[in-house]
Amino acid sequence: MKKILLFAAVLFTTASLSAQDPGSPVKRWDDGPLTWDDFTLNSDGLPAIPVLDYDWLARPVTTKTGNLKVTRMQTESIMNPVSSRINPDHRTPYTLLCQQVVFNYVELCRRELQNKLDFDQAGSFVSKLSPLYHDKVDRFITKLYDETGLGQDTSMVRFFDAQVKEQLEEFPKDTPVSVFQKKDFGLGINVGYGNEFRLGSAADYVRPFHGLEGGLDLSYKNIYLYWNLFFGLGGKNPQEIEHNGQTWKVGAAQLQSATELGLSVPIIDGPWIKLAPFAGAGYGFVEAAVGTNANGKKKTDSIKGPRFVAGLTLDIKYLRWLDLYGHDITYYATPVGKEKGYNERSVRLMAYVARTNLESPIGPSWSINFGLTYYTRNWDIR
After folding, report:
1. Would you list the domain boundaries of the chain?
2. What pLDDT is stored for residue 356 in this prediction?
3. Which of 95, 96, 225, 292 is the most exposed place for a label (fewest CB within 10 A)?
């Protein structure tokens, strides 16, 4: 057997792995030390040397701790008791320990393999790992059997045992999540509900609006450049307005929109929340129907002006997802690798003030704005 069974489309199929599912006669390294019950006894004098039939299996696994979800190609070391054989005359404690050393080394190689799979960005790289780790274990077995006399030199068996155990202690069983770092650039999007309440004399012309709030942001390290859009519906002219030679009749439907471009720098960014002040500038609009044109189509008029905003966003992170498994990258329908990354999903609360210098007769005015949106952000990892 002695081959890597990696659950990846570029190397093996699902069927090749399912043949060694939990119901199959296999023993996992995590199940504990080997015993002679894990070997098939041959009474015909064969094999001349013990045979430990090992494999590495892998499958996509998702774990979740708190709000952190990690998806990776999880590997495990196994041996097959049916095809692992021992001559009954060779059953000694040190012969068994020698087989345990082999199995421990198989596990050490699995940990190296796990690390490479976690960091690997190219799916084709997986196919190169199979012969490399196959050869690595076989070379170790040859060296072990040669220097211990097939387990007869007990002092050398203890030496190899201590050496491999020391390496296992130094090499983590799974790649720690903390070693993965977000790259400098990230992209986010938010969409949801927003409103705006005019203050002062502007409230005589413009009623509170409720509508769509959303936008995009591009970050470099801890600096966010954002673009935000608000589009409000449902307001009606509270009084008649004369503007640009047009008459806004009382009760005519109003629309309100605003867009801003600005900067944001988080002051708190933890596993569960992110608090960030922001400030920006843009343009605001109030629009209403003022009749029909010669073709019978609705005619509108708008009162507009520059706009300045400042406020806070509070992101409540309900999911952080570290994807080490990735999704396929294709080139002309041919898989060429996998793209991995880190994603955060939040409920965003927004509160900000705006100063919009609208044209007469509404004029410059302050407003208070609130938003409740869904926010998601993606980074590549390194």
Report:
1. 3-59+71-179, 182-381
2. 95
3. 292
Q: Considering the entire predicted model, what is its pTM?
A: 0.80
CA distance 196 to 257: 10
CATH top-level class for 182-381? Answer: mainly beta
Q: Which residues of 70-108 are buried (b: 16+ CB within 10 A; e: fewer)?
A: bbbbbbbbbbbbeebbbbeebeeebbbbbbbbbbbbbbb
- Cα–Cα distance, 368 to 196 (Å, whole number): 6
Question: CA 349, 352, 357, 363: dihedral to nearest 10 degrees?
Answer: 90
Q: How far apart are CA 333 and CA 112, in angstroms?
A: 31
38 residue type, one letter? D
| Cis peptide bond prior to 208, omega within 30° of 0 | no
